[in-house]
Amino acid sequence: MLQLNPTPPAPGRWRTILENDFFPKNRRRDIDGLRGLAIALVVLFHAGWLKGGFIGVDVFVVISGYFMGRSALMQHPFQPVRFVCRRLYRLLPALLCMVALVSAGMLWWVLQSDRADIALNGAYALVYLSNIWASGHVGYFQGQAVAYPFLHTWSLSLEMQFYAIIFIMALLLPLTRHRRLVLSAIFSASAAYCAYAWHTGDSQAYYNILDRLWQFALGTMVWMLPRPKLPPAAADAVYAAAVAVIMGAGLFYPLSYACPSWMTVFPCVAVVLIIMLPDTRVGRWCLVPLSPLGVISYSVYLWHWPGIVVANYLLFFQVHGAMMAGVLALVMVVSLLSYVLVERTGLDYEDRAPVAARNRGAALLVAACLGLAAVLAYISHVSRVH
């Protein structure tokens, strides 16, 4: 029988692991800080304190494309099993934990109609099709969105769907020139599709992978673009302008600028400029201080929206002000615990486990997600019938 945590790391080992995570010497901390800025924008938007914070998702998408380009397309030779296992251990344990705990804590006392929808949304989230569920059930910026604690998983579903696309590319396109050609075609086709959706006013395109692929592809194409060679002062100026564009979008963008919209081009290009300009003083001053938040950004993203939704259910009114600040403070504590005890533990096991045990563990994680999804789908069905 597989033991997912056979030998707990010694305290000294955990300290080393966490120091390497939060204060790494072999990774660009300003990109971690950029992720921290993105999650801050999203959380403040959901808290009702920042009207353009939805742009944080666009920032995340470009960063994700950048990292997946390195993991899949820049590795020679590509290791498909390791790639899949790394993604599964990175994403599934924390998602499974969040959906299981929130479902166990909510489904037994909410209204029957809410139970049916919440359970079904949880089931779709566990199989990474939450964006499809959301597109047919609720507008992301509408008031009823606050009734669904798993609605935010739509973006995680988009990310996993992109992983599947880039995985296939890595398998089928061994030559770099072919990758560049295919990436360019994906970028162009998706951008054209997004422009069409914007022209026709398709609001549900916000959830559509086809409208977001150009953002993923833009991040991936960073690896294939020539690096600019700028004097330090010029690099600082460009970097500062890029950060200002992202901050300005978060502060001032109205909801009408949410994807699909040509206005999302500006923060996405700003992300590319930041990635292509390492070792700037502006990055060290502005983004590096946010890097610890970026390290736990996945856990923060998972837990912040359920925290807000549960608080609204329990208090019977729209949470805001000091109460919202208290909810977010609690969310940060839960997110840190989720990172250390669940997310980091899964990654540490994936690093240390023998290959056979690692692969069996990944299969067990998938089976657990499918099993819980089936249970939630059944709960949803029974709730609707009765």
TrEMBL record:
InterPro entries: Acyl_transf_3_dom (IPR002656), Acyltransferase_3 (IPR050879)
Record flagged with keyword Heme: no
Transmembrane segments: 37-68, 88-111, 123-142, 154-174, 181-199, 261-278, 285-303, 315-342, 362-380
GO molecular function, a single term: acyltransferase activity
Keywords linked to the UniProt accession: Acyltransferase, Membrane, Transferase, Transmembrane, Transmembrane helix
Residue span, Acyltransferase domain: 30-337
PANTHER family reported for this sequence: ACETYLTRANSFERASE (PTHR23028), ACYL_TRANSF_3 DOMAIN-CONTAINING PROTEIN (PTHR23028:SF53)
Protein name from the UniProt record: Acyltransferase
Taxonomic lineage of the native organism: Bacteria, Pseudomonadati, Pseudomonadota, Alphaproteobacteria, Acetobacterales
